Amino acid sequence: MMNVFLDAGHGGKNPGALGNGLREKDIALSVTLKVGEILKRHNIEVIYSRTTEDRGIKAANFAVLRQSNMPSDLVELAFITNVEDSKILRKKQDELDLASI
């Protein structure tokens, strides 16, 4: 069975970008959990860095990309500070084409 590690990033006291009433950490966690469910439906074992908000602050310099000994990808969805993007992130996450992953 294939394993995939999903890191939602941010969390705890680190909200990531802020804009239009949204916090990046909330969007990242929500989308990460949705991606995890899609992967599980394809018989892929999913391991998460966090599934809730008790993460705390982690120091990082994109080590998930630099130091990984497996294929890695860093996904950025939209600009939370852009009014139109924030509307999509707030209300249309289920309409994002995550099925193509």
TrEMBL record:
This protein's UniProt keywords: Hydrolase
Record SUPFAM superfamilies: Zn-dependent exopeptidases (SSF53187)
A single GO BP: peptidoglycan catabolic process
InterPro entries membership: MurNAc-LAA_cat, N-acetylmuramoyl_amidase_3
UniProt keyword annotation of Transport present: no
Transmembrane regions: none
Cellular component aspect of the GO annotation: outer membrane-bounded periplasmic space
Domain MurNAc-LAA: start-end pairs: 2-101
Protein name from the UniProt record: N-acetylmuramoyl-L-alanine amidase
Organism encoding this protein: Tissierella pigra
Lineage: Bacteria, Bacillati, Bacillota, Tissierellia, Tissierellales
